[in-house]
Automatic annotation (TrEMBL):
GO terms for cellular component: cytoplasm. It is found in: Cytoplasm. Its main location: cytoplasm. It catalyses: epoxyqueuosine(34) in tRNA + AH2 = queuosine(34) in tRNA + A + H2O. Its EC number is 1.17.99.6. [4Fe-4S] cluster 2 binds at C198, C214, C241, C244. Belongs to the QueG family. The active site is at D133 (proton donor). GO terms for molecular function: 4 iron, 4 sulfur cluster binding; cobalamin binding; epoxyqueuosine reductase activity; metal ion binding. This is Epoxyqueuosine reductase.
Length: 313
């Protein structure tokens, strides 16, 4: 058995031991097919005010710009699907499921650092970096190349065994490892459930999302007033949005996560609409102390709550 094959086995067993649901391996090389797609997406201004997405164009496409000696991209899946949804009657205030508990950046980054330490201890000196949605890494494309799934019509990575309610993370390392084979097939077929369900028409064509129309963008990334054209279309989403995932048939395979840190704060479980509307900054700081909601800050959350309560003119 070649060393690169042994490394692949060891990497996958380590990923499982650390709680990752799936691990795939891809050769670190320039993402040639993605270059024109990314350029067109940016030229259409689908990134909205997310100016950072236009930065580091070369780094997004070439892992050796991030790790100069890169040979391998390890792609990982970490489940966040909750055992119980927060109250979701039509009139309820809604949070994206990934934001129920602690900020995933910190939870997963710690695991990735441990992962890299284990590899160095067991294999030897390895140059590498870890990433979880916070650097110019095209994580869905790498996950596809690593055989973990395909990019669905809602532009998210879909996995046949667990749908899409998961985080993606990567280790880019200078170790030669036997790569996995990408999925050759798109398993969305003729289904258009996500496109049909999006209330702001953000999915402009299969696999392409106009980020500037996405409810997640409007409630998190957009720092100014939400455009009035979206009044009456937010469906009570105060932070993020799961609509295109909730309607996806592949998410019938979602199973509850095993990460206690992703469980919601005890106060959140019985939050009424009145509790949300009357929330004070003190309560916000207490309930969302380690939450992704810190990103939008109290002022941003209040803006979102006021907007989704307003009626179209």
């Amino acid at each position: 058995m070649s060393p690169s094959f042994k490394y692949a086995q060891f990497i996958k067993s380590t990923a499982k031991h650390l709680g990752f649901d799936f691990c795939g391996i891809a050769k670190a090389e320039f993402l040639e097919e993605e270059a024109p797609r990314l350029e067109e997406w940016l030229n259409r201004n689908y990134q909205g005010q997310m100016a950072y997405l236009a930065n580091h164009f070369d780094k997004r496409l070439d892992p050796t710009k991030l790790v100069p000696s890169a040979k391998t991209v390890i792609s990982l899946i970490y489940n966040y699907y909750p055992e119980h949804k927060l109250p979701e009657k039509p009139e309820d205030i809604k949070l994206a499921k990934y934001a129920y508990g602690e900020d995933y950046h910190f939870v997963i980054k710690d695991k990735l650092k441990t992962f890299l330490e284990i590899l160095r201890r067991e294999i030897g000196e390895i140059e590498g970096r870890v990433f979880v949605d916070s650097a110019p890494v095209m994580e869905r494309q790498w996950a596809h190349k690593a055989g973990l799934g395909w990019v669905g019509k809602n532009s998210l990575l879909l996995n046949r065994k667990m749908g899409s309610f998961f985080f993606l993370a990567e280790l880019i390392i200078d170790l030669e490892v036997v790569p996995d084979v990408p999925l050759a097939k798109d398993y969305c077929g003729t289904c258009t459930a996500c496109i049909d369900a999006c209330p702001t028409d953000a999915i402009v064509q299969p696999g392409v999302v106009d980020g500037s129309r996405c409810i997640s963008y409007l409630t998190i990334e957009l720092k100014e007033a939400i455009p009035s054209e979206f009044k009456g279309k937010m469906e009570n989403w105060a932070f993020g949005c799961d609509i295109c995932q909730d309607v996806c048939p592949w998410n019938r395979f979602s199973k509850p996560h095993q990460e206690p840190k992703f469980d919601p704060h005890s106060d959140l479980k019985d939050y009424s609409k009145k509790d949300w509307i009357e929330m004070t900054e003190e309560t916000f700081q207490k309930v969302f102390k380690k939450s992704p909601l810190k990103r939008t800050k109290f002022a941003g959350l209040k803006r979102n709550l006021e907007f989704i309560q307003s009626k179209p003119s």
